[in-house]
Write a structure and sequence with these properties.
Distance between the termini: 88 Å
Structural class: mainly alpha
Number of domains: 1
Oligomer: single chain
Number of helices: 2
Shape: rod-shaped
Radius of gyration: 29 Å
Amino acid sequence: MEKRLPEPLGEHGLARVGALQHHRRRGPPPAITHLERQGIDLRLQLQERDEDLEAARTTDRELMARINLANPNR
């Protein structure tokens, strides 16, 4: 058994190496490309929301400062 075990593993290993080389030449499957694009789109959406949130916080701080200046006794 010890003599026969490396043979199938060797063939399987060579097949995997061949498949990887073929994959590298062809590029990633469409599903992976789609997921990568989706991840990029989600990161961009998150960045836009972060920018919007920061703008809203800045506006809120400015408005609160105006209110505090207009009503110093509050």
